[in-house]
Amino acid sequence: MHAAFGDDRRSDRADDPSGAAPTTTGDPLKSLEVEPESAATIFGDRIELGRRFTRDLALHGELLGLIGPLELPRLWTRHVLNSAVLAPLILPGARVGDIGSGAGLPGLVLAIARPDAHFVLIEPMERRCEWLHAEADRLGLDNVTVLRARAEDAFSVAPLDQVTARAVSALRTLIPLAAPLVRRGGELIVLKGARVQDEVEAARKQIAKYRLSAIEVVELGRGLVPEATRVFRATVDAAS
Fold it and tell me: What GO MF terms are annotated (predicted)?
């Protein structure tokens, strides 16, 4: 595992939509959501690493500005498992880029769940890169590379088999950043919210320009997480 560094040109913000400065009071583990029974099902024999990552994020995430102060009571279901259910879509042995990795959602979670694939975590902020690198070391993950760069400057890692992203930007903005990093016939796998169909319609020009095909919106994790994870999935430039 290694880290590569470039320019940091994105503003520093926590995942707290209020934009308030992070504060930590008391023992964060007391507020951590109780591990759902489905966690062991989703992570399988990698559950101990999943638990360690979740605990580390609970202990350090708010202080480092990785998660908002209201996220601990839903850290497992809304963040960790929401990311982990994406694991079955990762191709065997794939080289996967994760744009805007931040706290490691979904990049580090997928690296835990899919040790057969290699994950390039693309993140422009220095202190978030330091977290990603340190946490991958703590967990003993040898299938992770941390690249400090914006997505549009990350051509050194292309071509990738797949690219993931979570809570980064709307599809019409994300597609021009992500698609050029993917090999012909590779995939975009983007975690999205309830309005994903609206985003697809708004991104028709970008979908056509970057020759995306086999477009689908899939729901993952039904019966395992309180709210299914919605994923925009598309093949890149398959016909050219």
Answer: rRNA (guanine-N7-)-methyltransferase activity
Name residues whose C-beta falls within 8 Å of residue 125's C-beta, 6 or more positions apart in sequence: 8, 10, 12, 102, 148
* Binding site per annotation, positions for S-adenosyl-L-methionine: 100, 105, 151-152, 166
| Nearest in space to 105 (alpha carbons), one of 73, 68, 80 | 80
Q: Which residues of 39-66 are buried (b: 16+ CB within 10 A; e: fewer)?
A: beebbeebbebbbebbebbbebbbebbb
Q: Could you tell me the CA-to-CA distances from 184 to 53, 86, 188, 191 in Å, in that order?
A: 33, 21, 11, 21
Between CA 81 and CA 50 the distance in angstroms is: 9
Query: Order of strands, edge to edge, in the sheet holding 229-236?
Result: 3-4, 144-147, 118-122, 95-99, 160-166, 182-192, 229-236, 212-220
The residues that bridge with 217 in the sheet, in sequence order, are: 232
Place of tokens 């994020």: 57
Task: Sketch out the chain's domains with CATH numbers.
Answer: 25-236 (3.40.50.150)
Strand pairing category for 212-220 and 229-236: antiparallel
If you compute the radius of gyration of the chain from its CA atoms, what whole number of angstroms results?
A: 17
- Rounded to whole angstroms, how far apart are CA atoms 60 and 68? 11
**pLDDT for 169-224, tens place per residue?**
999 999 999 999 999 999 999 999 999 999 999 999 999 999 999 999 999 999 99
Contact 211, 238 (CB under 8 A): yes
Q: Could you report the per-residue pLDDT of 85-126, keeping only the tens digit for each?
A: 999 999 999 999 999 999 999 999 999 999 999 999 999 999
Q: What residues form the annotated binding site? A: 100, 105, 151-152, 166
Alpha-carbon distance of 27 to 31, in angstroms, equals 8
